[in-house]
Amino acid sequence: MPTATPTATSTPTLTAAQARRLGLRAVAALKRDDPAAALALVERGADVNVQDDLQDSVFLYAGAEGYVDVVRAALRNGADVRSTNRYGGTALIPASEHAHLDVIRVLLATDIEVDHVNDLGWTALGEAVGLGNGGPDSQEAVRLLLAAGADPAVRDRFGRTVLQNAERRGFDQIARQIRAALAR
How many CB atoms neighbour CB 172 within 10 A? Predict the structure, then answer.
């Protein structure tokens, strides 16, 4: 009986250990600011959910750093949107803090929990307001999160709402957005 010959476009099946090693190499590539290398490793079958010693995975680190193409590839290759980083946060939380708008849009199109609270007591909306810079991208991040159903009444670990944080930080435009969401 003839055996199948691999074609130029087929990829060999990896063992779990090989996929894990490739995943850790992909995380390391992202940490060197080399998303192209990470993408290539993901396309070769890297485990996009394996976490390094700092609990960073390809998916989580790409989301936090705004590498939208890597986030998309990770999602195509089985990224767990419920996975959490060393702070207990999903990829959406640091993406929102840093106002990585393309990543936020991609993540909100999944079944990621928009009101997940990390170990520090923050949601994505909370970090966008409490740790963001209040500029146009932060305002858009807040708009996207509110449109996706983020709850502006969730309080942070200090007992403050996002409206209180916006007002405290002088983010007038964001405070208006939150008031409008609360009025609905």
Answer: 11
Treating both helix axes as pointing N-terminal to C-terminal, what angle do 162-169 and 172-183 enclose, rounded to 10 degrees?
A: 160
- What is the Cα–Cα distance from 9 to 20, expressed in whole angstroms? 22
d(CA 59, CA 72): 9
d(CA 153, CA 158): 13
Q: Write out pLDDT tens, residues 111-127.
A: 999 999 999 999 999 99
Instruction: Go through the chain and tell me how many residues it has.
Output: 184
CA distance linking residue 59 with residue 26, whole number of Å: 10
Question: How far apart, in whole angstroms, are the C-alpha atoms of residue 179 and residue 184?
Answer: 9
pTM greater than the 0.70 cutoff:
yes
CA distances from 93 to 84, 101, 181 (A): 10, 12, 20
The torsion angles phi and psi of 177, rounded to 5 degrees, stand at: -60, -45
Query: What angle, rounded to 10 degrees, do the helices at 58-65 and 101-108 form?
Result: 130
Token digits of residue 175: 């405070």
CA–CA gap between residue 172 and residue 162 (Å, rounded): 12
Query: In terms of C-beta density within 10 A (0-12 exposed, 13-18 middle, 19 or more buried), how is residue 69 classed?
Result: middle
